[in-house]
Amino acid sequence: MRFDIITLFPELFAPFLASGVTRRAYASDQVAVRLWNPRDHADGNYRRVDDRPFGGGPGMVMMIEPLVRCLAAIRADRAALAEPVPAPVVLFSPIGEVLRHDRVARWADGPGAILLCGRYEGIDQRFIDAHVDAQISLGDFVLSGGEIAALALLDAVTRLQPGVLNDAGSHQLDSFNPALDGLLDCPHYTRPEHWQPAPDQDPVPVPEVLLSGHHAHIERWRREQSLRITAQHRPELIQNARAAGRLSAADEA
Ligand code: SAM
Fold first, then answer.
1. Is the ipTM above a cut-off of 0.85?
2. Residue of 239, 220, 218, 226 whose CA lies nearest to 185
3. Nearest residue CA, atom 6 of ligand 1?
4. Is 68 in contact with 61 (CB distance < 8 Å)?
5. Is the CB of residue 117 below 6 angstroms from any atom belonging to ligand 1?
6. 192-241: per-residue pLDDT in tens?
7. How many other β-carbons are positioned within 10 Å of the β-carbon of residue 155?
8. How many Å apart are CA 176 and CA 31, to the nearest integer?
9. Nearest to 3 by CA among 11, 13, 12, 144
10. Catalytic residue positions, numbered
């Protein structure tokens, strides 16, 4: 799997790629990440990549030519691979489909993509019309650039790759996973067993069942908590699970 990322700020990616449980996947190229700066493909001493919008108005717009040349360089680099695979060009944009688990799972099973991070007011529409295959949004808000969205997609996809999480299969117990019937995760606790928020306050214990060692009771408790939290915060996910026949009689009790 390979992701080529077109960004005016490649330096934003280095700390992320070197941190946390996913770092080995990037270091070993299990998830290969290549960073491309359109500025390296821009003209003139100033290597200009943006210009004022036609029609006036605030801000700047990313110019077509550096992006076209950058994309051509990526395509050439990919074509030289032993086993080249076609890569869709994905633009991060508020226009796109909001990223959800089912889409992340599909990306995680795929060969990768060319990810385009917008900046300023966005990208000249003619480049989008000519070269972009899909658009992805992180949600109904505006970021300063597509880099955080690219990092979100990369991270979500990488943690689903085999062997990336220390505890294989633990992602199946995460929120939205079909193995959890698309529900939200249950609450988690660790030591100390009793936590005293302040000297004059009573200690707050861990739920007793979690200390019982009774596996079936713990599983039932976790499922009930998952159902409770989902009903409280995302009731439509309960409806979806019910409609898909994923809720048992015990769940409904
Ligand atoms: N003028 C644009 C608008 O109102 O939709 C916003 C441009 S934003 C300041 C600059 C870049 O950030 C966009 O081109 C896009 O790549 C990225 N971006 C902003 N919000 C995003 C979101 N919700 N999801 C994904 N990318 C986003």
1. yes
2. 226
3. 121
4. no
5. yes
6. 999 999 999 999 999 999 999 999 999 999 999 999 999 999 999 999 99
7. 15
8. 23
9. 13
10. 94, 121, 159, 174
Binding site membership of 141 for ligand 1 (Cβ less than 6 Å): yes
Alpha-carbon torsion (106, 108, 110, 116), positive or negative: positive
93 lines ligand 1 (CB under 6 A): yes
pLDDT score for 146: 98
Q: What is the pLDDT of residues 136-167, one digit of tens each?
A: 999 999 999 999 999 999 999 999 999 999 88
Nearest to 184 by CA among 242, 139, 225, 217: 225
Q: Which domains does the chain have, with CATH numbers?
A: 2-158 (3.40.1280.10), 170-252 (1.10.1270.20)
Q: How many CB atoms lie within 10 A of CB 253?
A: 6
Per-residue pLDDT at 182: 97
Concatenating the DSSP letter of every residue in 118-141 gives: --TT-B-HHHHHHH--EEEESSSS
Contacts of 184 (CB under 8 A, 6+ apart): 175, 176, 226, 229, 230, 233, 234, 237
H or E element in which residue 36 lies = strand 32-36
Is it true that the peptide bond before 58 is cis, omega within 30 degrees of 0?
A: no
Mean pLDDT of 11-20: 97
Strands 50-51 and 32-36: unpaired
Which residue's C-alpha comes closest to atom 19 of ligand 1? 143
Q: What is the pTM of this model?
A: 0.96
Burial status of residue 34 (CB atoms within 10 A of its CB: 0-12, 13-18, 19 or more): middle
State the chain's mean pLDDT as an integer: 97
Residue whose Cα lies nearest atom 2 of ligand 1: it is 121
